[in-house]
Design goal:
Length: 768
Amino acid sequence: MAAKKNNQTNTVKDINYYKKKFWRIFAYSLLGVLAFFLFASWGLFGSMPSFEDLENPDSNLATEIISSDGVVIGKYFKTNRSQLKYSDLPKSLVEALVATEDARFYEHSGIDGRGTLRAVFSLGTNGGASTLTQQLAKQLFHGEGSRFLPFRILQKVKEWIIAIRLERQYTKNEIIAMYCNVYDFGNYSVGVSSAAQTYFSKDPKDLTIDESAMLVGMFKNSGLYNPVRNPEGVKNRRNVVLGQMVKAKMISEAEKERLQALPIALKFKLESHREGTATYFREYLRDYLKKWVTENKKPDGTEYDIYKDGLRIYTTIDSRMQKYAEEAVAEHMKNLQQQFFIEQKNNKNAPFVNITQAETDRIMTQAMKNSVRWAQMKEMDKSEDDIIASFKVKTKMRVFTWKGERDTVMTPFDSIRYYKHFLQSGLMAMEPQTGNIKAWVGGINYKYFQYDHVGQGARQVGSTFKPFVYATAIEELNMSPCDSILDGPFMIHKGRHHVTEDWEPRNSDYRYRGMVTLKQALANSINTVSAKLIDRTSPEAVVDLTRKLGVKTEIPVQPSIALGAVDITVEDMVAAYSTFANQGVYVKPQFLSRIENKSGEVIYEPIPESHDVLNKDIAFAVIKLLEGVTETGSGARLRTQGGGSGDNRWTGYPYMFKNPIAGKTGTTQNQSDGWFMGMVPNLVTGVWVGCEDRSARFKSLTYGQGATAALPVWAYFMKLCYADKDLQVSNSEFERPANLSIKVDCYQRPAVVKDTTQTEQNTDEFEL
């Protein structure tokens, strides 16, 4: 009996002993887990985001360039990521995301308990347990992390802690928006905003249900479900998402069937710095911002990073005008280029005209030395002889053509000569009253031709310089557009106005018209009249006025500038002409409206610059002179429909404009440069056309003159602008000053015909 009792006692003792041991182990384990979570939250197992980090996560946001009409026309980025608010997301995308990735998103507080237990008991075979908030935590602060199980567990714990903190810090809607902003959709597109632009060329708010479902499907694995490489897999995944939306009662079964039958319809457009709209302007702006960030620091004294700080650059560019300008340049240059190739077929030294072999060699050698190939081989310590030899070896390459890029085989040397054939163009349009630049086209294709012919390229302006001479004459000599002057042989003798030998200008048609009004003289771009006027006013007076008009390039103080022997940029020419349209007030061209940081705070707002140059009467008199150019002069084809020599290259002709237009064509010696400056009351546009090298040119005036080379670009552009009524481009008269003191309406010839530029003292200099 005693033994039996002892056994019962030992059994009871053993049970109590194991119960205590179990609860001790359980308590220690629980305390260990709690300590583990506590230590992890303190950062003992690796850094954890602070309160400030959660408030302002490292966003690495692309800087957006925004047009005056609210369109994102480009970005600067290392990671193409744009931020959007929850209100910017389409309802269909939010519903698809929740239904597919986290059905109980609105019920949990960062961790889905049911999902976690399911994942643990099924060892992950029945789906994972990461909530949207956990996935956001991973994207923001850890990335994919380690595949080593202990480290993976530690990372999962950190995700839980961060997820709970995020839920406390942000609303559910803010968490969804943040998640949609950080996911990498491939093809340099981070975030829904960038992905919508890349894959569908639209804003997120405009996405359809099936497009939203496709993007949500990519959240699972954007590398695998890439619609460019794997359209069938993407379609299947999209259909799975649509099925989840049916389960969540977000769409009907019938709607699901309809949407699942749709193909994957992409409008794929890879966003890059070298492609898209306003490429030349964006590069000009980038150079400006490089200097701006050194002069405008953050509150903490550090510099802004335009590639990751998510700045919003609001520009004056109008996306519609920019599109029309690019279309006008492309259509005309494509048309004119055909004629250029035709002319060069029998030219053994194409595209160069009338230059020696030594000059040709100099141009080609310089082009080789400016090439990327030369720079790369120099870095490899190759000798100059080896580098030059490499330019003679045929290689596969992709070249630009007006019919699209083409794969071919040629030597790098031949490719340089091939690209020298291409006519280039520069166009800028500006509001004269505000200085706001509305369109900027620096060339024909930024990917292949990076040189900007608006802001960088100063070219000889030809007869477009003459209005500055006429304006000086009206101001200095009290002349009017209706005053008469003799078109006849004229010479400025050696020693006068710094000329080193006798200078006798000729008219382009080698004939003289006798007595003409100033309006007729400018309309017909008569060289002798311009020479007479600068002789009377002095070159110094003309240069001084041109400086006041904002021209920054060096201008020689010589009478020959009256005929346009001056290099000026398109940007400066547009600003100068705008002064006439703005009643004599010069306004510096403006391309920025404001800059905001990623929080929407304005951190920079430029101050417009302007100054008086001419009084209103003189400015209006110049406008009336320039109207004569489009009424009866070299710009008259803007109003006719009869055609003429070379009219098959007048792109968009007949134009049939009936509204007042002030303008001036310009053609330089040997047809190396063609210009047209065109003005209506609220828009001034300048166009230049020519080859990169001045020795590459048309052989005759038929196609090389400004009226054929440049004017059609302006006409095509303006026709598109007038067709878009929302732009409100003016077709009315220029504002006439009250009590105008200068005669501008030349309806009758003067009763006494005389050369009103002559005086008794210098009559001999004007004799025939």
